[in-house]
Amino acid sequence: MGVLKSGFLFLVFTVCLYPVFVALLTVPWLQRHALYAHKIHSGFWHDVNKPESFGFAAHQVTPFNVSTPDHEVLYAWHILPLATVAANRDALATSDAFDQSLPLQLLKSDEQARVVVNFHGNAGHVAQGWRTDTYRALSNQPHTHVFTVDYRGFGRSTGAPDEAGLITDGRALVNYVLSLGIPPSRIVILGQSLGTAVATAVGLSFSDPTSGLLPQSLAYGKVNMDKAVFRSIILVAPFASLPDLLLSYRIGGLIPVLAPLRNSAFLVSLVTKYILDTWPSGLRLNAYVSAASTLSSTSNNGAGNVHILHARDDQDISFVQSEKLFAMATGKDVEELPLGAREVVGEGKVGVRVEMLEFGMHNRVVTYAPVGLAVMRAFEGV
Ligand SMILES: *[C@@H]1O[C@H](CO)[C@@H](O)[C@H](O)[C@H]1NC(C)=O
């Protein structure tokens, strides 16, 4: 009896509260807090200005600020390759923790230096969760410098997040690295989860700055609008677009967002109209492949490839999203992809590779060896 009664109450609760939940999410402020979850972080008891507390070697990480053309100040990290730290231990030991001069000199003076620009997922700050393991894994590769940033409204960065803002922030970090004299052919853009949407849009904004698929309000500032194709764009646990994702997304693998509406085309179109930031990565990646192919064939030999990785046991974003993204990027039909890698190189086009992994879940996967291998692969022949 008790079980029946509580089951009934649960049903009433769910049926009545779900519409309230969906209605609340149409309020812009609530929607952006739910999507970006930037206020959910451990900044109160973790000090990102003490990278050693996250397991880095002394002086391996230099925190610094990047300014955006629309006057936000973003908090960022420059992580040195461990081998570079070892070779310069004594000089680094006398350098101030926030002094960028020596770390940047080590980057600029290494002819084999390569840079991974990392765009993290939603919630938290640069050092949240598995993120630090990712940086450590990559900086264990010789000559590999990692740059990572907190988007506006995240961690110690100023402002509040939205789609145009995050893309502006991504561009600001990439422009910072370019301003150091690092050529695009030595830069890999790596994104995970929400960061894949940023990585894709940033890639498109450099290969085709005037693309109609980019937000109108993107703040380019006075930076030059020279086109660029980077070494590679690596997308880990991505999604094809936000409305599409929300139809299958379950918060923490449990609570559905729009899945209950999925069978009603009317309700779906009604509710998706209220999604403010749609992050159309599938369309953008397709446009990127076209634009990058044209640029890559004339200048950067072999650059611009896309590598998508997704774990089958991802409980947050289904691997089906990568199947859709791959199909959209390559212009093929959506198909069920087996475990392992598949590559499509259209004639005269940059390659698009998709790799279905058996393990890795949603967040941890970016720390796993296949992502390290993807970075190595990207830089092969450089
Ligand atoms: C970055 O900016 C913040 C706020 O403006 C400032 O407090 C901090 O000292 C700056 N950090 C560095 C490393 O310059």
Automatic annotation (TrEMBL):
A GO term, aspect molecular function: hydrolase activity
Keyword Transmembrane helix: yes
This protein's UniProt keywords: Hydrolase, Membrane, Transmembrane, Transmembrane helix
Domain AB hydrolase-1: 120-269
Keyword Transmembrane among UniProt keywords: yes
Taxonomy, superkingdom: Eukaryota
Pfam families: Abhydrolase_6 (PF12697)
Positions of transmembrane segments: 6-30
PANTHER family for the chain: ALPHA/BETA HYDROLASE DOMAIN-CONTAINING PROTEIN (PTHR12277), PROTEIN ABHD13 (PTHR12277:SF81)
Protein name: Alpha/beta-hydrolase
Species in which this protein is naturally found: Aureobasidium namibiae CBS 147.97
